[in-house]
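COMPLEX REQUEST
Ligand: D-ribose
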Amino acid sequence: MNIAIGSDHAGFLYKENAKRYFAITQQYSCMDVGTDSEKSTDYPDYALRVAGALLSRKADLGILICGTGIGMSIAANRFRGIRAAACESAAAAQLARQHNDANILCIGERLIPWEKALEIIRIFLETPFDGGERHCRRLNKLDSFSI
Ligand code: RB5
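STATUS: Structure written out below.
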């Protein structure tokens, strides 16, 4: 499975940690879209790159990390077909995959310790979408609104 990962400066350390984890476990291949330092930068730029990687099918799932996970999720959810979930617990990450077929996980480096972030990342990547008529019906509605 290919993972696209991006962060702003506030999520840089956790992004590097996650890349190290992927390199050690070799379970997933990982595409890093930046940022490449703790120098101040703008989270929408990295949300755009990860969303683009998914929508062009270069990646199967995405991870976005900023200070809270909130800016990243707001930015990524601007793109039709993206379902980004800001999660602060493994239970939320599991349900985001099972019920919402979330395709991008957003993490807040300033809100949770790294050990918890890693648990959330692992659960998110390991949990499949439940499928089923009711979940699919609701997901189809997400992409059908046009106001
Ligand atoms: C950057 O200071 C911070 O605002 C950003 O990382 C994020 O938390 C926004 O939602």
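REMARKS: The CA atoms of residues 46 and 120 lie 20 Å apart. Helices lie at 12-25, 43-55, 70-76, 90-98, 114-126, 133-142.
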